[in-house]
Write a structure and sequence with these properties.
- The structure is a single chain.
- This protein has one domain: 3-Layer(bab) Sandwich (minor pseudopilin epsh fold), CATH 3.55.40.
- A five-stranded antiparallel β-sheet has the order 3-2-1-4-5, covered by helices on one side.
- The protein is α+β, with helices and mostly antiparallel strands.
- The longest helix is centred in the N-terminal third of the chain and has 52 residues, at about 20-70.
- It has one helix spanning about 20-70, and strands spanning about 75, 95-100, 115-120, 130-135, 140.
- It is built from one helix and five strands.
- β4 (about 130-135) and β5 form a beta hairpin.
- The mean pLDDT is about 85.
- The termini are far apart.
């Protein structure tokens, strides 16, 4: 039996050369410089969309419960998640509650809290004209 030996010309490759490594690092740096500002903008836009969807969802929940229960349901701005605030800033959170007794637009002892949203670290500013919104049994906004 005859054995054949194949001989390769040159040296065997054992890794990157310094030039290849420098080119790879340069390309990676260029991609990072281009990509990071776009990623930051993507995260900010995602935060805005997420908070907007959360508020719209809770407004819809308040309206649906007002219709289903045939009683007023309110949503109010809240910084602590337990009581309605006097501020028109909605970015720290809000409360959805059945508002059929006591002071209108305030969570009283007998009001049933349906949902609470709190985000003390919100980077999205939500400002409203009032501190609460109240839906009547027909689903329309009432005072």
């Amino acid at each position: 039996m005859t054995t054949h030996h194949i001989r390769l010309r040159g040296r065997a490759s054992h890794g990157f050369t310094i030039v290849e490594l420098m080119i790879t690092v340069a390309i990676a740096a260029i991609l990072l410089v281009i990509g990071i500002p776009n990623f930051t903008e993507f995260v900010a836009n995602n935060r805005i969309v997420s908070t907007t969807n959360e508020l719209a969802s809770h407004l819809n929940i308040a309206r649906v419960h007002a219709i289903a229960r045939n009683t007023p349901v309110s949503i109010c701005a809240s910084a602590d998640g337990t009581s309605c605030g006097v501020s028109t800033r909605w970015d720290t959170g809000w409360i959805v509650f059945v508002d059929n007794t006591g002071v209108v637009g305030e969570v009283d002892g007998s009001d049933e809290v349906l949902r609470v949203y709190t985000d003390a670290n919100s980077k999205v500013n939500i400002l409203g004209d009032g501190t609460f919104l109240r839906f009547g049994p027909t689903g329309a906004v009432i005072n």
